[in-house]
Design a protein that fits this description.
The structure is a single chain. By secondary structure, this protein is mostly helical. It has helices at about 1-30, 35-45, 65, 75-85, 115-125, 140-175, 180-195, 200-210, 235-270, 275-280, 285-300, 300-305, 305-315, 320-325, 330-340, 345-370, 375-380, and strands spanning about 90-95, 110. It is globular and about 95 Å long. The two termini are about 10 Å apart.
């Protein structure tokens, strides 16, 4: 198992590098960039894409007027300084220049950094987990992600736990009662829940329970109340759960339906196998057969998938649900960074989330071995 883990860890390096290369290349082709965003704000145009024929990196050697449509009234020095600050260019001085490189020195000039070199610099910084600073928020990317993480942890953790706590017992019960009225009406409810989009369910919860048209049992927005600091420890816990109830329910509904049906089908497949018939023939009770023999095999795929499900909910936090409940989490952060072309935030979150996703894939394999020690990935490969 040690050799298998080592191989998987080494495989993470080229995989993560490939992810970053593809996304970095795509960014170069997307119209508009952070400098265009700043220009559009200064000029008051409001539309960064208006008249842009290419991204901020095209047109090496061109003047400001050719590269940045809408920057007609801005001085070249200002645009050069923006490019240097954002890492698109650098100040290069003549050989033998003894002073500090600056825009004013006649021996120095602004030189554009090729995309390939910028990518190498980027990955070198990321290897030491130096993610830089956001272009538009004046804060380190790591601090920004940490600031938004409590919302995503809340939605991811509680949604996953609730889905498992409800779906597994319900799925087992449906498998045992397969074809019964209980199985029929619960399947209808599950399919209905799966068919309802999470954001539509969120709006329905707000209308019914958050003062929309009926009762106001839950708050309309936020993760905590305004008087959070004044509450006692018990009051803070109650206030926290009071605020997260509706958004967690809205983000749980789809995973709940999928996991329930997966549990049922997994148990049905195992119940029909020969070893179950043999166990019953030996006189074992239904409960003994179900939980002593079937449970381990049926739950293999479900338990092993827990890390992946948690990460998918955690990092795939719904932008719409966060917006509906006014929650400032990683979902909104990623969307706003993409719209604003905040490259440090985009690439840093992509790098970290990609790395965590690959590690979770390895963790899922280890969970298989933990649940069923008979599985040996090394012997399967050889």
């Amino acid at each position: 198992m040690g050799a298998y883990i080592l191989r998987r860890l080494l495989l993470i390096i080229p995989t993560l590098l490939g992810i970053m290369i593809i996304n970095f290349a795509l960014i170069q082709l997307v119209p508009g960039g952070p400098i265009e965003q700043i220009i559009s704000r200064i000029e008051g145009e409001g539309d960064v894409f208006q008249g842009i024929a290419g991204g901020g990196d095209v047109g090496e050697g061109m003047g400001a007027e050719d590269r940045y449509v809408g920057a007609r009234g801005l001085p070249q020095e200002f645009l050069d300084e923006l490019e240097v600050q954002m890492g698109f260019s650098r100040i290069v001085c003549a050989e033998g220049f003894a002073g500090e490189p600056s825009f004013d020195a006649p021996e120095c000039e602004v030189q554009k950094i090729p995309a390939m070199e910028r990518f190498v610099i980027l990955m070198g910084n990321y290897l030491t987990f130096d993610f830089g600073e956001s272009y538009f928020r004046s804060i380190d990317v790591v601090d920004l992600v940490i600031e938004k993480m409590p919302v995503s942890i809340t939605l991811g953790l509680w949604s996953t736990l609730i889905a498992y706590l409800i779906s597994i017992p319900l799925g087992i019960r449906k498998a045992v009662k397969d074809g019964s009225p209980f199985d029929t009406w619960t399947s209808g409810a599950i399919i209905l829940g799966y068919a309802i989009p999470g954001f539509l369910f969120a709006v329905l919860l707000l209308v019914l329970l958050a003062g929309g048209s009926y009762v106001k049992w839950f708050p309309l927005r936020g993760l905590t109340s305004d008087n959070w600091d004044e509450l006692s420890m018990l009051g803070k816990v109650a206030d926290y759960f009071w605020h997260i109830t509706l958004p967690v329910l809205a983000s749980t509904i789809s995973s709940f339906a999928t996991l329930t049906l997966l549990t049922k089908n997994s148990f049905l497949d195992e119940i029909k196998k020969q070893y179950v018939i043999t166990a019953k023939a030996k006189g074992l009770s239904e409960g003994g057969v179900l939980y002593g023999h079937v449970f381990r095999n049926a739950m293999l795929i479900i338990i092993a998938g827990f890390p992946g499900l948690f990460i998918s909910v955690f990092f795939g936090a719904s932008i719409i649900i966060e917006t509906i409940f006014s929650l400032d989490g990683l979902g909104r952060l990623g969307f706003e960074a993409a719209v604003a072309r905040d490259y440090p935030v985009i690439f840093a979150t992509l790098y970290v989330f990609g790395l965590i996703g690959l590690l979770v894939g390895l963790l899922s394999d280890l969970m298989y071995v933990l649940v069923d020690p008979r599985i040996d990935f090394e012997s399967r490969e050889t």
